[in-house]
Amino acid sequence: MSKSILVIGGGFSGITAALEAAEVGHEVYLVEKRPFLGGRVMQLNKYFPKLCPPSCGLEIQFQRIKKNPNVKVFTLAEVTSVSGSAGNYEVAVRIKPRYTAPRSCDLSELAAKLAANVKNEFEFGLSSRKPLYLDAPFAYPGRYVLELEHVSEEEKKLLSKSPFINLKDEEKTITLNVGSIIIATGWKPYDVTNLTNLGAGQIANCISNMQMERLASPFGPTNGKIVRPSDGAPPKKVAFVQCAGSRDENHLPYCSYICCMASIKQATYVREQYPDAEVTIFYIDLRTPGRYKKFADKVLADEKIKTIKGKVAKVEEDIATSDVWVTAEDAISGNKITEKYDLVVLATGMQPSLAGESVPFDVQVDEEGFVFDSQDKGIFVAGCAAEPLDVMKSAQSGTAAAMKAIQTVRGR
Amino acid sequence: MTMVSRVKPDLEFIKELQEIGGENVKKCFQCATCSVVCPLSPMDKSFPRKEMIWAQWGLKDKLVNDIDMWLCHKCGQCSEMCPRGAKPGELMAALRNMAYRNLTGPSFLGKWMSSIKHLPKLIAIPAIIYLLIWFITGSICGSPFPLKDGHVEYSLIFPGDYTIDPIFGLAAIFVIWSFYKGVRKLKEVFDTQPKTFVVGYTRPKTIWHALYEVIKDEVLTHKKFKDCGEEEDDQLKFKGHLMLFYGFAALFVVTAIVAFTHWAGKIFSFLHMGYPMPLYNPVKLLANVGAVLLIIGLINLTKRRLNESTKDASTYYDWYLLGLIWVVALSGILSEVLRWANIAGLAYLAYYIHLVSVFMLIAYLPWSKLGHLVYRVFALAYARMIGRVSTEVDEQKNKLFVI
Q: B403 at the A interface (CB within 8 A)?
């Protein structure tokens, strides 16, 4: 019997689950696929319910992890196989090499010396980065990661002279013995290239809501200035396209819970930066779960923020100006609207990270890729791996999963 | 202040509509994707979103008076892009089916044409008439499969002057009268439609001008079908319908020439042609070209209907017409081939089937899907009159007028 708990995924719900279990004395392994913790929250400019910047919640979490010897974090790590049963699992974890020495020091000068510019997936392709990088200023672990495949032989020689680089680092597989497993693998933004009638990601000034978060983020590609990707011009007319690939049989058949609120929140980003800017939100139903209604009412009282009931079904680029033509039918008046906007934001939904992936152990996964709790197996799900949630509810579900995992390893 | 009017749902009508093809209408959540992706929908009071909510609410009056059902050419774009599988394209087709059924009397014919269970009755009418004729003429000739100089000659059993022309003539008069009533009713309901002002659009002066424009710009070119989409299915539909149309046009011309020369030939003997015409006769040639066009058109359309599982499903109205035209075309060709081959038994049978199927095609025309020949053309012309046209937007989007 093992009293240890494995948490797969180092986003908000995974971190919460790990800490809740660790702080009552359980040994917890936190396994994260990416080089840094924080998950999707790290990429947001502000998050609900209090509209904090990610540093606000996450830095405290990182401190708690740092101070708690019960939490053992593995980054660049993936679970490759799981065997055993509740109370006694043997888990193989493959850890990719980081090629940097275990120290949190600023390698930005060294990074600047490297020639390659790699597409920055943390910024959703809005900028590029060096192959030696941190995602964000307060990334955790604050240890740089080096992508060797983008480094030339000469650069390797230069890098090898640095005491903070370890070119001899190798991929390794470790085995963990745990009693319970929490799946907190989270979500990915729905792939806009599937949205053929909404530009399929080919229109420069038609961005996704997550790209909007990065544009508005102070440590994002534009240092927080919301500008058009095509020419860096400040947008005067912005449209939000709700349910871009959500509540749609042909894409994600479910509602992603928070996108309406996210667009309303992003409307405030635009309005705060540009007092003259106009915002239009095209929607099927504006969904304001729970107490969010109050926030929505407050924001929508702004007369420069307009809402139109009617899903945008056509988005086209204006070749001459790179503006974006948006066509929708205003279902209230019954007339079609075709209008030109400087910037269009697609409110894409959350797709579970496990959608289309093979899961290395036996849990029930629905056809969309959402995972179910397996009480008898001692495997539980936290956060958006189970259903689309906001950060608050993700944290709550993390705590709940930790409780269930503790019950599994200790008995009730 | 506007009057608040209470919605009076007609539940029975909705049930009928669902049976006749609009079964998924209740799934719609009014996102309005359909109206936007429709290549033919006008900018104002677009379709088919509004029809979907009318149908959900049971607003029968609005639905049956809706001119837009005739503007839809059922490319299936709306159904394909619909996030709910509510299939707006099927609803539009169901509305048209409803119109074929109810626009013109006698009501029993509309009902009989709406479901496969009444098909035997529809077949029985011409089948019995021509079987009786066959029985009588067969007795006179002394054989049900008589030969003249050793050759099959259809006029021995079905003499045109007495058994074909009078029956089809009466049927044609009945059909024209029924269409007249139907179109008059359509005009009445369309007259209640609002007129739209579209900048840069010149409205035709009279309905006759409008009809001329529709025939010139749309019917002869099948332009709307072309606008409907470029996928394989759309191509099959465009080509199939075009060939079928010209096939029928050719056969109509042939029939007109034959009928005219035959009856006029009784007075002016120089007009008289010998029947059956030899193959090299241009009229016969045209007839055979028409038959070939029919077959190619039918193959295209049938192929499309068979692989349209993802788009709109086909209804009984679709299959009835397609099936009937297959029978007409094949029995027609067989009649000709078997006559050459001189296989009397089969030849007479083929000719009999041909007569029965052609009777069904013509006499039931206003209540079948083929009724669109008249109703759609009239509605399209009327739409031009009131300025209800899809706004054509050029590539650069710099010319767009929305009023």
A: no
Q: Is the dihedral of CA B357, B362, B368, B371 positive or negative?
A: positive
Q: Which residues of B touch A327 (CB under 8 A)?
A: 36
Between chains, do A249 and B30 touch, taking CB under 8 Å as contact? Answer: no
pLDDT tens across A153-162, in order? 999 999 989 9
For residue B35, what is the nearest residue in chain A, using CA coordinates? A329
Our CA-based measurement puts residue B208 at a distance from the nearest CA of chain A, in whole angstroms, of: 29
B32 touches chain A (CB under 8 A): yes
- CATH class of the domain comprising B11-102: mainly alpha
The answer to whether the CB atoms of B83 and A319 lie below 8 A apart is: no
Q: What is the pLDDT of residues B269-313, one digit of tens each?
A: 777 777 777 888 888 899 999 999 999 999 999 988 887 655 677
Say if A332 is an interface residue toward chain B (CB within 8 Å): no
Q: Which position has the token pair 């020689």?
A: A157
Strands of A335-341's sheet in order across: A312-317, A324-330, A335-341
pLDDT tens by residue, B10-65: 888 888 888 887 888 999 999 999 999 998 888 888 999 999 999 998 888 889 88
pLDDT along chain A (412 residues), means of 10: 92 96 95 96 94 92 95 96 92 95 89 93 94 93 93 90 91 95 96 94 95 96 95 95 94 95 96 96 94 94 95 93 94 92 96 90 91 93 96 96 93 68
**CA of B189 to nearest chain A CA: how many angstroms apart?**
20
CB contact under 8 A, B396 and A336: no
Q: Look at A318 and B37 and tell me if their CB atoms are within 8 Å.
A: no
d(C-alpha B371, C-alpha B377), whole Å: 10
CA of B45, closest CA in chain A: separation in Å?
5
Across the interface, of B44, B82, B84, the residue whose CB is closest to A335 is B44
Domain ranges of chain B: 11-102, 116-385
CB-based contacts of B106, cutoff 8 Å, min separation 6? none
Q: Say what the pTM is.
A: 0.87
Mean pLDDT of B135-160: 88
> What domains, with CATH codes, occur in chain A?
5-96+171-186+353-410 (3.50.50.60), 108-160 (no CATH), 191-349 (3.50.50.60)
Q: What is the ipTM of this complex?
A: 0.83
C-beta of residue B186 within 8 angstroms of C-beta of residue B379? yes
SS3 assignment for A340-389: EECEEEEEECEEECCCCCCCCCCCCECCCCCECCEHHHCEEECHHHCCCC
